[in-house]
Each structure stands twice: as C-alpha cells, then as structure tokens.
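Recall that a protein's primary structure is simply its ordered list of amino acids. Everything else, from secondary elements to tertiary packing, is in principle encoded there. The following example makes that idea concrete.
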Amino acid sequence: MSFFDPRLGLDVSSNPRRAKWTADQIAHDHALRTGPTAALEHFRTIYSLRSSNPITQNDELYRLSDVLNDYFALCGSTDDIWRACTDNAFILFLLDVMTDPDFLCHFSVFSMNICMLVMWVVSLLDNESVAGRELDDQHLRRLWPPGLVKAFQMKIEAVWTRLWDQRSCLLQRSGPDRDRMLEQLDAMSYTILSFHKTINPKARASRKMAMFNFYAWVQLHGADGRTEGDMPKLYSSHYALCILDDHLYILLEDTGAPQAFMKELIEDAGTSQSFHAVQNALKASPLLVNSALYSCLRMLGWQYRALDLDAYSDFPILPSISKALLRQHAQNDSPAGSRLPVNTRLHIVRGSFQHIIMILVGVELGFIDAKALSSESAYALWSMFLCAFTYGSAAEESLRQIHDNATREQLAADLSEYLADVVGTIGKTTDAVREGRLAKVVVNQLRGAATARAQGIGMWYSTILDLSSAMHLSTSPETVAAFRGAWRSLGKAFDIDEITERDHLKAYRAHLCWWKDCKYHTTQCPARLSVCKGCKENQYCSKACQIRDWKEGGHRAQCGRRVKK
C-alpha cells in the first residue's frame, strides 16, 4: 500500500523540477535506468564520503535524493528495483542514514526524501500483497533475502531511539520544508507499522516509535504561533495518533500504565503545546477523520486522566470535539467516508461521550471550576448529543440496506449498545441536574445553550421535532422513542417547557412564508400572510410563492396527507 500523497507537492511522476536538474542529476537518473544496483551503490558511496557537517540545499546528496525519489515513483515495483534494493541491502543503508546524529538537522527536504525512499522500498511488499499474491514465508524470502527482515526490524528500532534522542532538533527548525518533512515521517512510520503487521498480525507499535511520532505530531500541529487556521494547509494524516493508540493497547493490562505513559509524553512535549495541538487538529484539520479521529479521542481520554480532571478547566475540549464530530458526519456522506464501517462511526461518538461524563463528574466533585464551562462549551455539549442522534439515525438507515444476515446482526448489536451508551449518558446528565449535583452557574449555562433560539426555535425543541418525524420513518421506532424519552427527561430537568417552546415557534412561524426560496422564509414578513385553504397550515406572502411551493416544494403531497388525516 502506498501512502504517497501528491498534495505534498511531490508528485514526481510529473516533476517540474526535472527541468532544473543539474548535469549530475541527469547522469544519476540515466544510471538508475541502465543499472540501478550500481547507481544505488554510487549514492551510498557519496554519502559515506561526505563531510561531518549537516547536509545543505547545495549538497550533491540532496540533489541525488530528489532523483532517487523520482525514479522510484515512476518505476514502481519491478524485478530490477527489487534486485537493486536487496542485493546491497539498500533499505538498511537508508535506515543507517536516519540514525545519523544530524538526520533532523539536515536540510529538511533531504530528510524528507530519505523518509520517502524508506516508504517506497517498504511499501513495495504491500503492493505485492495487494496484487493478490499469497504472503507466505516463501514469498517473503523471495522479496527479502534471508535475515534482511530481521535486520530491518532491529535497525528500525535503532532509528526510533535515535530520532527520539534528536527530537530537540525539531525545535530549531520551522517553515514549510520542516512541515513537509514531519508529514512524510508520519506517513513513513505508519507504512512501517503496516509492514510489521503484514509479517506478524499481532505486532504492535514499539514504545520509542510511539513516543517520537507523538512528539513530532505535537510539533507539527501545536508549534508556537500555529492556529486552527493553519490546519487545512497541513497534510498530515495523523498516523502518529493511530501509532500511539496501537502502543497504548499493550499497556492496558497494567493498571495505571497508559496514564503514566501519556503523562511522560505530554510533559516532555509541553503540556500546553500538546493540548494546543489536539485542539487545533480537532477543530480544523480536514484529515482528522475516521480511524485517526477515533484514536485521537481515545488518546485524549488518557491524556486528561494523566493530568487529573482539573485539566478540563485549563484546556476546554468540548467545542473542539463538537467540530470534529460535525466534520466526520460530513465525511460519512462522501465517497471516502462511505467506506468507513458504520460501527467505527458509532465508536467515534462513544469515544467523545467519555469526555462529557468526565467533565460532569469533575464539576460535581469540584475538580473542574464551574466557571470554566463556558457558553461555547455548553453549546458544544448539546451539539454532541445531537450528533449522537444523527449518527444513530444514519446507522439505522444502513441497517435497512444490509442483506447479509451476519453483518446485519452485528450492526444491530452495535447499534443497540450504542443507543444504551448514548441514552445512559443523557440519563446521567439528567440525574446530575435533577439531583442538584451541578453548580447553578453550570445548569444555567447548559439551559441557556439548549433554549437559545435561532429562527424561532432552540436546540432542544428542534431535536424533539426531528425525533417525532423520525418516528414515522424508523424501522425500529422503539429506538427513537427511547432517545426521545431520554431527551424529554433531560429537558424537564432543565425546566424547559415543551408547550412553551411549541407556542413560541408557532408564533414566530406565523410571520414566515413557507416557500423555501422566498426571502421571508427565514425573515419575518411585515405584511399579513395568506393561509392555504386546503391544509389550513402553510402560509404565503404571495400567490406566486404558494404556486411554486405547490409545484416545486412538495406541498401538493403534504397538503393532501394533512387533509386526509
């Protein structure tokens, strides 16, 4: 599997930099095409003869590394390339380059090129697997000579150790070139982890691998001056979070080990910087979706546990999580998101709900300052509840479309567990409010967020209407009924009166034209409206709007149903 991303500006198959190649680059390109083994050995020799100073933009090694990447991108997996890479163990040489004490101090694009070369060579094995060949011991021996895989695994651990020891070099660098290098390190690391799992499905990310990749991720997303507005410019796929989550799995058997490990990591990277990176990425990184988002939410839970609940006061996270869930929902509707297993989407929401529970417990016990729950955080909490309903409805829709019994039964079980978790979280919130366990300022903030009206309706009552509509479409209305019951109980705990909300909306809509494209559909009309003589419900500011809604807006069918009813 190739993790090469053309958005990194490295689409070498149509490399515009070729036009600027020097004579030595052109000669090296020719040598690669006529005899790749000798050409790779030439690159190794030049590296061994270099000075002890960090490689610069003007060094021949940097220029030749560009040519090598271009060659691997264009030629792909061929027997010549494999012989060239395995005859002289070129992959081990690349790892030796990465263990150089100056690796992170070299010109960033050179370091990035080396990461890409490692990724190219390692990913060739995955390409063979994708091609449909059986991945048995004989196949591995054909691709990798005896002993090379073991040597690779030993050397890559030395790489993580060396990079971890060199990590302070990242603080001395900045700018787009450093960012591209960190993004490529992220992709290379995940390619290597995938390779480990190809050989041994039970393999897990090592400690130093997880430590360095998390540190680099924090430097990329939480550097001084970095804002959420910078996130769309970064092309990190957040593999570091998946790698960290993979390693944390090893620690789960030892009580307290995940918290201790996370505390060590975030204190080393800087507590404020670590949380700043998470907040930036959750709020605005378009690539923090799917499995990476799930890993992020799990990691974040350990991060807060490591620092105790009062960290929620210093680093409010609900607004960031809310934005991430909304972005994931949009991703679910995309071609890429449609391939994400539905149960993974549900796990993402459940992963976010742990933070609601921890915040409520923290406020109740006094670990979290009640004043720290801002109006923005209160609104985000309600928004997360709404996302839970939206995700559940989408999962139920998927359930209706599944014909395989085993898959259908598994999703039904996951959906049932999900509903119990969501309703349970809403119930715990209801109990905390009803029993007076939350400070008055917190209750007022949450109530204000739930009843703040936009176009005549608040978030809580809007959801009541959505749930009522969903009852008629759902194949399992009891599921929607359970959610609606929990939602109504929560509203009552906050003294939100459903009748009052309904009457306010009705009074507001009495001045709105029902044709969706009319300017008075969202702004109250100053003139008196005409009522449909059929259903006696819809109102229009003009005959033209009524005709358009009848012909184009679907009112003809709606009106007929209402009259019959």
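The first strand starts at residue 530 and ends at 531. Residues 491 and 497 are 7 Å apart (CA to CA).
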